[in-house]
Amino acid sequence: MLIPHMQGFIMTSEVPPPPHLPRMPLETGPGRFRLGAPEASVDVRALVGHCRFDTPASDLLVSLLPDMIHVSGQSRLTALVPVIHEETRADRPGRGMVLERLLEVLLIEALRSGSAATLPPGLLRGLSDPQLAGALQGIHAGAGGNLSVSEMARAAGMSRSGFFERFRKQVGRAPMEYATDWRMAVAKTLLRQGGLTIAEIAMKVGYGSASAFGLAFARHEGQPPGVYASRGRG
């Protein structure tokens, strides 16, 4: 079960346990807990973890993901989870780097395991659409380019109106709204990294001048890019 945006959750049995059984978790080892009577047989084993998107664009990514993804019977994930579990419990050189890569693979495998037909509107459903996937990849790769609905529709081999409606239905927002969100996500990352002027960042995300970019950024984020950059680095 992958839940992209949650700070807490509750799991319960279909048939709740009797009220007299102990409810508080009993710690049986580092990071290991037992619920229910200690002498009872085990009905369910759960491996629970939390990971964080360490990027200014995390709000965009989370907003485009389903509320919950249920994966069942995926052998690649079944093989990957024990490796992650083992790595978290060992104190070996490079542990952080290995875990980061393993969690990236875990996330990608979970995201692409479901059927596109059952996905709600969002990024995964859009990328699963052969006619829209190229347009989305073009937005991701060319934030500084000349993005327009007409150009994207032409690349997808669709009419402008047909492309617009299909994009909005599959992704959940209009093409240029998504393109602007992506450009601002890229801009926020560049602003936090530092090393580039506002004018240079403006060019990299498709704006002809620092002033035009500043107005668009302030309208989108509620603060000027310079203020965002200083707060982010602070």
Tell me briefly what this model is.
The protein is mainly α and 234 residues long. The chain contains 11 helices and 2 strands; from the N terminus they run E-E-H-H-H-H-H-H-H-H-H-H-H.
Characterize the overall form.
globular
Estimate the mean pLDDT confidence. 86
Query: Helicity range of the residues?
Result: 40-55%
Secondary structure tally: strands = 2
Q: Note the total helix count.
A: 11
Oligomer: single chain
Measured between the Cα atoms of the first and last residue, the distance is 35 Å
Features:
single chain; 234 residues; mainly alpha; Arc Repressor Mutant, subunit A; globular
What does this structure look like?
- There is one protein chain.
- The protein is an all-alpha fold.
- Among the domains are: 71-118; 123-233, Homeodomain-like (Arc Repressor Mutant, subunit A), CATH 1.10.10.
- It has 11 helices and 2 strands.
- It has helices spanning 58-63, 75-89, 95-111, 123-127, 130-141, 149-156, 160-171, 175-193, 198-204, 210-221, 225-233; strands at residues 26-29, 32-34.
- The two termini are 35 Å apart.
- 19% of the residues are buried.
- The mean pLDDT is 86.
Topology, element by element:
Elements: E1 26-29, E2 32-34, H1 58-63, H2 75-89, H3 95-111, H4 123-127, H5 130-141, H6 149-156, H7 160-171, H8 175-193, H9 198-204, H10 210-221, H11 225-233
Antiparallel strand pairs: 1-2
Helix pairs in contact: 2-3, 5-6, 6-7, 8-11, 9-10
